[in-house]
Amino acid sequence: MSGLQHLVYCERQAALIHIERAWEEDAATAAGRIVHERADLPGSDFRGGAKVVRGMALRSERLGLFGRADAVELRDDPTSPSGVRPFPVEFKRGRAKNLLADKVQLCAQAMCLEEEFHTGVPEGALFYGASHRRVAVQFDEQLRGTTERAAARLHELIRSWTVPPPEPGPKCRRCSLRDICQPWALSESGRARRHLSRILEGRP
Questions:
Q1: Model pTM?
Q2: What is d(CA 52, CA 7) in angstroms, rounded to the nearest whole number?
Q3: 2-164 fold
Q4: How do residues 119-148 score in pLDDT, each as one tens digit?
Q5: What pLDDT is stored for residue 186 in this prediction?
Q6: Within 13 Å of residue 27, how many CA atoms lie on the same side as its CB?
Q7: Which of 3, 25, 167, 180 is the most buried (most CB within 10 A)?
Q8: Which 8-state DSSP code applies to residue 10?
């Protein structure tokens, strides 16, 4: 499911990570890894009358997704067939922001939980470490549609073994893979072709 977050942020980033298995850690990704290492430790406890399960394994046969939720609050709900209403919480480093990629990742977790618990999961939350606050996310039809399309697109890239060309933008400066991706160099029309020609011809 993390692949959906990568894909919505940047399709090329998703392909480099999940097809070419490329990875480069920087300070931001290291901080994020530490946050998730702490959050993903399997276990459970009770908070505010709800059972909180950490590191819950998730799977969706319909979407062809699998992954692990940082935390799922199982809230008592007598209207649910299972007697509980799952509430997924995804931990993120940094400050609270309105980032579609994060919402899609969380929505995918909700859709997996709906398959497992046979009940609707209408909302969840993103917890941002730097600001120490939750951002509520409603899983409306628009977000669910975006999530389903993202899952289909990710499967399409993996099946076809396709790495999309770079599309340089502000997000590239925050990406740990920028040195591997080389978005500005490879996006310049003809530059890569001319560079390869010089190598083949033995010219500097």
A1: 0.80
A2: 29
A3: Lambda Exonuclease; Chain A (3.90.320)
A4: 999 999 999 988 888 999 999 999 999 999
A5: 66
A6: 2
A7: 3
A8: -
d(CA 110, CA 94): 23
Residues paired with residue 65 on neighbouring β-strands, in sequence order: 60
Could you tell me the two tokens for 156?
């399409």
Distance, in Å, from the CA atom of 55 to the CA atom of 36, rounded to the nearest integer, reads 9
Q: Calculate what percentage of the chain has a pLDDT beyond 70.
A: 81
User: Would you say the C-alpha torsion 5, 8, 9, 14 has a positive or negative sign?
Assistant: positive
CB of 22 closer than 8 Å to CB of 16: yes
CA-closest candidate to residue 62, choices 10, 113, 8, 100: 113
Which H/E stretch holds residue 90?
strand 84-92
Each residue of 31-47: b (16+ CB within 10 Å) or e? ebeebbeebbeeeeeee
Amino acid occupying residue 201: E
Between residues 140 and 21, the one the model is more confident about: 140
Tell me the DSSP string of 101-159: HHHHHHHHHHHHHHHHHTS---EEEEEETTTTEEEEEE--HHHHHHHHHHHHHHHHHHH
Report the 3 state secondary structure along 40-72.
CCCEEEEECCEEEEEEEEEEECCCCEEEEEEEE
Single-letter amino acid, residue 28: A
Structure tokens at 138: 């409603």
